[in-house]
Amino acid sequence: MNTDRQRRMWLVLGGAAAALLLGIATTALLATTGAFRGPHPAIWRAPSAARCTAPPLPGRVVQVTLADMGHPSGPGPGWSGMRMMRLIAHPTTVTAGTVSLRAVNAGYLTHEVMVLPLSAAQAPGQRPTGPDRRIDETGSLGEASRSCGAGAGDGIAPGTTGWITLTLRPGRYELVCNIPGHYLAGMYTELDVAGR
Asked: pTM score, two decimals?
């Protein structure tokens, strides 16, 4: 190895060692000054547990979790189709009759839950969206979109709960969030309703 190459190798190794020492020293300084103590800035924290709860609900209760990997400033370009949001139901099968949906918004963005029938040939997530990035709501059986309340409203705010009670016949249903872009980002799931 020639001396020029050796010199460059020692410079690279020296630079890496200096960067490592600087990182360790900065971390130690922040730790001793208390910078890591106390609450994290709000944008580092996911919403805490729901700030309100649903009252006792009639019938079979389906727990719906609304989640996103968003940030308070909202989704940026390229989100649609990346499934950065989720709508999770538990259980996914209930018996026909009175069914209540309790929707807890565990994300950073406002969400909702709408109930739409699924035909035998349809699969969840296949509904077309319009220019407004929403699906057609025709045939909706109802929605939970009120923070700390039942039925329709302006959306379920982060950290809050909304709910709805419906009478569902046997069949397949799609639970969706129809806030612009949310369906495309993955906010849908299937709920199966079995006969008695």
From this structure: 0.70
Output the furthest CA–CA distance in the chain (Å, rounded): 85
Give me the DSSP letters along 135-185. B--TT--EEE-BTTEES-SSBB-TT-EEEEEEEE-SEEEEEE--STTTTTT
Question: Hey, what amino acid is at 114?
Answer: M
| Rounded-to-10 torsion of CA 151, 154, 155, 156 | -70
CB 59 within 8 A of CB 165: yes
pLDDT (tens digit per residue) in 102-160: 999 999 999 999 999 999 999 999 999 999 999 999 999 999 999 999 999 999 999 99
C-beta separation of 111 from 187 below 8 A: yes
In whole angstroms, give the CA distance from residue 9 to residue 6. Answer: 5
Check residue 42 and give its pLDDT: 40
The predicted structure's pLDDT at residue 26: 64
Average pLDDT of the chain? 83
- Distance CA(156)–CA(77), nearest Å, equals 23
Tell me the residue type at 148. Answer: C
* 85-90 vs 93-95, strand pairing mode: unpaired
Collapsing DSSP states into helix, strand and coil, what is residue 118?
strand
Q: How far is CA 163 from its chain centroid?
A: 17
From 83, 79, 87, select the one nearest 62 (Cα to Cα). 87
Strand residue runs (E) in 39-84: 60-68
User: Does the pLDDT of residue 63 top 80, yes or no?
Assistant: yes
